[in-house]
Amino acid sequence: MSTKGFYKEFEVFSKRTHTSPLQYQFSLLAPNKEIALIMAQENFMRREPVVDIWVVERSHIRRMTQEEKESLHRIDNKDYRTTKGYGYLKKKWRQYEQGMLDEQEIMSWGGKKQE
């Protein structure tokens, strides 16, 4: 019997806590998904605590084609959607605050009018 078609590649993911996201851990070779899960538990649960392990056959994972990846590129400038697009606001806010808090403003807080 040839071993070429006997083993399948599986990808292993785990969660440390019930609220944490799944994290990729490693790949393994196994004859079926049941054995793959047992191997993942033996290899992974000894090392660190986990609440869930997922084993996915690699051939069942679909990746994007090159054409689909090209559709992800943005044509227009959408920097405002990322935090780097707001980098100028700190400086602008500081200038605004400094402009507002002049001597006359501060003196008015005490209830006395400046002559």
From TrEMBL:
It holds the Pfam family PaaB. NCBIfam families: PA_CoA_Oxy2. This is 1,2-phenylacetyl-CoA epoxidase subunit B. It comes from Sutcliffiella rhizosphaerae.
